[in-house]
Amino acid sequence: MEKIIIIKYAELNTKKDNINYFLSSLKENIKNSIGEYSIKYDRGRMFISDKSDNYDLILEKLKNIFGIHEINLGYKIDTNDIKEIESNLVSLLKEKTFKTFKVETKRSYKGYNMTSMEVSRYLGGVILKNIKGISVDVHNPEILVNIEIRLNESYIYFEKINGLGGYPVGTLGKGLLMLSGGIDSPVAGYLALKRGIRIEGVYFESPPHTSEAAKNKVINLCKILTKYSGYIKLHVINFTNIQESIYKNIPHDYLITIMRRMMYRISTRLANKFNSKVIINGESVGQVASQTLTSMKAINAVTNMPIIRPVACLDKLEIIDIAKKIGTYDTSILPYEDCCTIFVPEHPVINPDEKKCEEYESLIDYETLINEALKNCVIIKISDKNKEYEDVL
Ligand code: ATP
Ligand code: MG
């Protein structure tokens, strides 16, 4: 009997023709996270064995990998012989203290000479005979004994750990995340990663109006997101000249609208250059003046790139719940200024007019300013390890 981690990947099983693509990506992501362990897969399951018994560490990492539905720390028996299963099971259970139990069996090997029900009933009887003072409870057992019968081997496990679900990061291609230091955009990034999108970040800074500390906060948020993605490339755009030019030349009620149109233009150019197929951001309908439907339409008008807004229809409290769960909240609420908040007009327009946006924008030479900002873009590579993934970044 050998200790082993069993991984189940629910939604991936629906990918009939592409299943191998998804599984090899998952395997690659697992390897990048946990290191070189023996990882095997057989239909519906992935198995990880580790001779040096670092299972606790490995489990912690697996809990953050998208594409995994459930993780079990269990035992592998090199045969499906019922007598072998029986003796191993009894010796495992004798180590545990419990009053009630239930046996559940799955057979992927349909040619086995007992049905799943028969295996469960038989092993239940064996357990009752060998361990005193316990009973079966089918509704709320203290210990759920899981048995899996396969072609040449069998597995026993007791605990189920929920995985994050979703698709392996990278399987759906790449997207560019507009990442501010706020609460919403890191959550948007996490949700995009969950659907298999590898993210690169873009952060707009306005020194000296925004500080080095504000930028470091964004880098730290990326670092937290790398727990789920392994690595992230962050593009830092100096937005000062654009912002100051908007501030000097454009009626102040349109400042935010125009500023955001510039951010969209730059993000689109970056996305195309670095092969991102979508832009992702943390906009949430109705949250601020620039997120009314009319504002969103006026801002969106400058790009053909699809925009994914994972938190668009979540309440702020729902977004905060996710931020706390994924570990970004405490960093997000640190009080450093964002370039969106330093030039906030007293009465930002709620229903901007697209024609007026174009008219105002013609007052500045924004193409030149955008080209200059893109030319000066600084790329920061951030990884969950100390060493960087030079080869992939
Ligand atoms: P967040 O909490 O993510 O900062 P927010 O509610 O403060 O969002 P806005 O400031 O209007 O909303 O920004 C909306 C979205 O635009 C952000 O979620 C983010 O995706 C993007 N964004 C805003 N400021 C920046 C910035 N300085 N750099 C990159 N993206 C930004
Ligand atoms: Mg913000």
The CATH architecture assignment of the largest domain turns out to be: 3-Layer(aba) Sandwich
Sheet having the most strands: 9 strands, mixed
The overall number of domains is 2
Q: Write down the CATH class of the largest domain.
A: Alpha Beta
Instruction: Please tell me the overall pLDDT.
Output: 93
Structural class: alpha/beta
- Remind me, CATH topology of the largest domain? Rossmann fold
Terminal-residue CA separation:
41 Å
Instruction: Spell out the helices and strands N to C.
Output: EHEEHEHEHEEEEEHEHEHHEHEHHHHHE
| Number of helical segments with 4 or more residues | 14
What is the CATH H-level superfamily of the largest domain? HUPs
Attribute tags:
VC0802-like, Rossmann fold, 14 helices, 15 strands, elongated, disordered C terminus, binds adenosine-5'-triphosphate, binds magnesium ion
Explain the overall architecture.
By secondary structure, the chain is α/β, with parallel strands linked by helices. The chain folds into 2 domains: 164 residues, VC0802-like; 218 residues, Rossmann fold (3-Layer(aba) Sandwich), CATH 3.40.50. Helix content is 39%, strand content 22%. The chain has 14 helices and 15 strands. The strands form 2 sheets. Strands 1, 2, 3, 4, 5, 6, 7, 8 and 9 form a 9-stranded mixed beta sheet that branches. Strands 14-13-10-11-12-15 form a 6-stranded mixed beta sheet, sandwiched between helices. The longest helix has 19 residues. It is elongated, with a radius of gyration of 27 Å. The two termini are 41 Å apart. The site of adenosine-5'-triphosphate has 19 residues, from helix 5, strand 11 and helix 12.
